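In this section we walk through a basic example: taking a raw amino acid sequence and producing a predicted 3D structure, encoded as discrete structure tokens. The instruction is simple. Fold the sequence below.
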Amino acid sequence: ITITPNISHSILPLFFCSVIFLILTFDKLQSTIPNLIIFILLILSLFTGFGFVLVITFVLLESFKTLIVDKNNKLFFLLMKYIIFGLAIFIFFYDYSFSKAEGCAAQPISSLKHFLIYFLSVASIPLGGSSLGNFASFIGFILVSFYFAIFSKAIYFYYHEKSYISYIVIFLIISSLIFISSVTLGRSCLDLESAFTSRYYLFTSLG
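The resulting token sequence is shown next.
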């Protein structure tokens, strides 16, 4: 566990993640109360900042589950999820003060090569990050390749066999990739050392 000075970047979202995935493992979103607990934890995780990736991933997966896998008529419940999370996001950003810590927002992709190397360097954090030296981006490439290989298998099993373990695997991998992408968009204009910040460890490690 990596503990950072801001608990919103470490132990708090880790706690929310742990409870959410325990419920997903044992309940499979079949009961009302566990569903409600997950909703509350997802909304709380949104307000940690970093936990926004869990909300985005959950909405994407539930859309995939309802519209493609189950092919059922529970569109009303899917719509309600959109509305609830939409309201939560609106409350989060209401009167939000956007303060640029760095100037990357103005030019998120100044060099495609640097952008890709930065992305792969962030991805390498669970396996050592900065300690890997010049091999960080290469190790990141291998790890991301594994992500996509496992992701494709998990999608297959979830679509054809509705395996809920596959649902959780997909959730974890997508969460990590969304987080890595968002960090890269916001920080890739900096030098590579900034890619290995300790507060990124939790969400890069989910996959």
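Looking at the output, two observations stand out. The CA atoms of residues 171 and 197 lie 23 Å apart. The chain has eight helices and no strands. In the next section we compare this with other chains.
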